[in-house]
UniProtKB/TrEMBL annotation:
Sequence motif 'KMSKS' region, location on chain: 264-268
Positions bound to ATP: 32-34, 38-44, 227, 257-258, 265-267
Family annotation (NCBIfam families): glnS, PRK14703.1
Protein name per Swiss-Prot or TrEMBL: Glutamine--tRNA ligase
Entry keyword set: Aminoacyl-tRNA synthetase, ATP-binding, Cytoplasm, Ligase, Nucleotide-binding, Protein biosynthesis
Organism per entry: Metabacillus niabensis
Residues annotated for L-glutamine binding in this entry: 64, 208
Length: 562
């Protein structure tokens, strides 16, 4: 995971290896399959896989599938696709549900040691008994059941004798602990629900805080890397591993989570955007999901470089969205072919150009990469230009086309506006111009200069195209502080982030592109002259009409700090 930013975890691992505390490095990326991965998960992926690669270690992809009510194989497959697309190969593919039998046996061990008990309190009662940050909790009246009774009840829970919420298994730790996570946390709950992996084999499921450390220990993970909201749970993590008498003892290390301006990164909130039809699915290009960024046109290289430059620290900083855009520009500027597209067409008739004649003009594919070669584009009497490149009554310092003014057509000739054609309502529908054949690009013409250069597409062979331009989905008023998305507690009422959804986040335009774009494929990327970088949409493009998503505009005020 080489980069110029700080990485305190790398220093810890290096010291562990040098002192003999560890003799190998084994990490894991452990998503819960209850939604699609987002850019915040990309940080965890890059950290876990990158650090293992740095030390010739291994990384597992493991699905923390302990909640059958929210999980689905659709999410499992999407997560696998995203990790692979980002450029990483996992050494082992596992599910928490692979270990359900061992987890059950470890829970029985806790009961036999007097470290766990079956509780009849409801979820609300457990919450009331828990106490507050300043007041200790109160012990459950069922806390001192005998070991034999607890074993009997727990086995009957497994057999399905109790309904949802009727009984739970709790750890017996310390109801007066200053750390609320140690106040007899729930380890198992009854849930009569079909599991995506184990079907109806189980009707009790381990809680995340119990299952997760066991999974790490079972797999022999050395460094369990997670975000800082789990720091308070580290004592429970260590308690579970110790009291369950696990052979391997992973070390939990927390790092600051990634926040980006104009973005929400809570799976619950992202799911709400999908469910309430604010967006066109999890892979909508306005979503911060990895699949959304992929569909928009981001590259895995750009995302990896972005994550590496955000660094690895304890602090959870908010990163400007412009920084992410910077890295995709940097990645695409030497990869993307240049071309011309007209997003808001205005027809131009070149009245002194021979009728019926079409000539082919040379244009470089990418001037920054000469070895990419040249392309040919047709030119004729009728072309399209951008509506914004003509003004009938322009302000000062407007150097594009207006009556009597001359401009250069990119890769072609000088043209001069001679006449403006309007419809009955007074709308401009066509511009008539003349051209000077001596001014052809590449001939070395120096007779006179013009201040404006505009792009165009030849009309008779132009390919119809749809252009989708995106703005941030969330307006910058939103305070992007998301809840712990792995928490299974009820989320408190909050001011709704939906109030800050940008109604103008998508603009759809119908225009034209050069005829050599006829054979483009999904995810092909181009730089359209003056408009930015675009990606061929994999979902909506058809043989009749190509749909382009704008990845990012050309210009940015962002400056990368070295």
């Amino acid at each position: 995971m080489e980069h110029n930013s700080s990485n305190f975890i790398k220093s810890i691992i290096k010291e562990d290896l040098e002192t003999g505390k560890r003799d190998y490095v084994y990490t894991r990326f452990p998503p819960e399959p209850n939604g699609y991965l987002h850019i915040g998960h990309a940080k965890s992926i890059v950290i876990n896989f990158g650090l293992a690669d740095d030390f010739n270690g291994k990384t597992n992809l493991r699905f923390d599938d302990t909640n059958p009510l929210k999980e689905d194989t659709e999410f499992v497959e999407a997560i696998k696709e995203d990790v692979a697309w980002l450029g990483y190969e996992w050494d082992g593919l596992f599910f928490a549900s692979d270990y359900f039998e061992e987890m059950y046996n470890r829970a029985l061990l806790l009961i036999k040691k007097g470290k766990a008990y079956v509780d009849d309190l409801t979820a609300d009662e457990i919450r009331q008994y828990r106490g507050t940050l300043t007041e200790p909790g109160k012990e459950s009246p069922y806390r001192n059941r005998s070991i034999e009774e607890n074993i009997d009840l727990f086995e009957r829970m497994r057999k399905g004798e109790f309904g949802n919420g009727e009984k739970v298994l709790r750890a017996k730790i310390d109801m007066a602990s200053p750390n609320i996570n140690l106040r007899d946390p729930v380890l198992y709950r009854v849930s009569h629900a079909t599991h995506h992996n184990t079907g109806d084999t189980w009707c009790i499921y381990p809680m995340y805080a119990f299952a997760h450390p066991l999974e790490d220990a079972i797999e022999g993970i050395t460094h369990s890397l997670c975000t800082t909201e789990f720091e308070d749970q580290r004592p429970l993590y260590n308690w579970v591993i110790e009291e369950c008498e696990m052979e391997h003892k992973p070390q939990q290390i927390e790092f600051g989570r990634l926040g980006i301006t104009n973005t929400v990164m809570s799976k619950r909130k992202l799911k709400q955007l999908v469910d309430e039809k604010f967006v066109d699915g999890w892979d909508d290009p306005r979503m911060p999901t990895i699949s959304g960024l992929r569909r928009k046109g981001y590259t895995p290289e750009a995302i990896r470089e972005f994550v590496k430059h955000t660094g690895v620290s304890k602090g959870s900083g908010l990163v400007d969205e412009a920084m992410l855009e910077h890295f995709v520009r940097e990645d695409l500027k030497l990869k993307a072919p240049r071309t011309m597209g007209i997003l808001k067409p205005l027809k131009v008739v070149i009245t002194n150009y021979p009728e019926g004649q079409v000539e082919m003009l040379d244009a470089e594919i990418n001037p920054e990469v000469p070895e990419m070669g040249m392309r040919q584009i047709p030119f004729s009497r009728e072309i399209y230009i951008e509506q914004e490149d003509f003004m009938e009554d322009p302000p000062k310092k407007y150097f594009r086309l207006f009556p009597g003014n001359e401009v250069r057509l990119k890769h072609a000739y000088f043209i001069k506006c001679e006449d403006v054609i309007k419809d009955e309502e007074g709308n401009i529908v066509e511009i008539h111009c003349t051209y000077d054949p001596e001014t052809k690009s590449g001939t070395g013409f120096t007779g006179r200069k013009v201040k404006g250069t505009i792009h165009w597409v030849e009309a008779s062979q132009a390919i119809p195209a749809e252009f989708r331009l995106y703005e941030p989905l969330i307006l910058d008023k939103q305070d992007v502080e998301d809840e712990d998305e792995d928490s299974e507690e009820d989320v408190e009422e909050e001011k709704t982030f939906l109030d800050y959804v940008n109604e103008n986040s998508l603009e759809v335009l119908q225009g034209f592109v050069e005829p050599n774009m006829k054979e483009v494929k999904a995810h092909d990327k181009f730089q359209f002259f003056r408009h930015g970088y675009f990606n061929v949409d994999p979902r909506h493009s058809t043989d009749e009409k190509i749909v382009f998503n704008r990845i990012v505009s050309l210009k940015s005020s962002f400056k990368l700090q070295k």
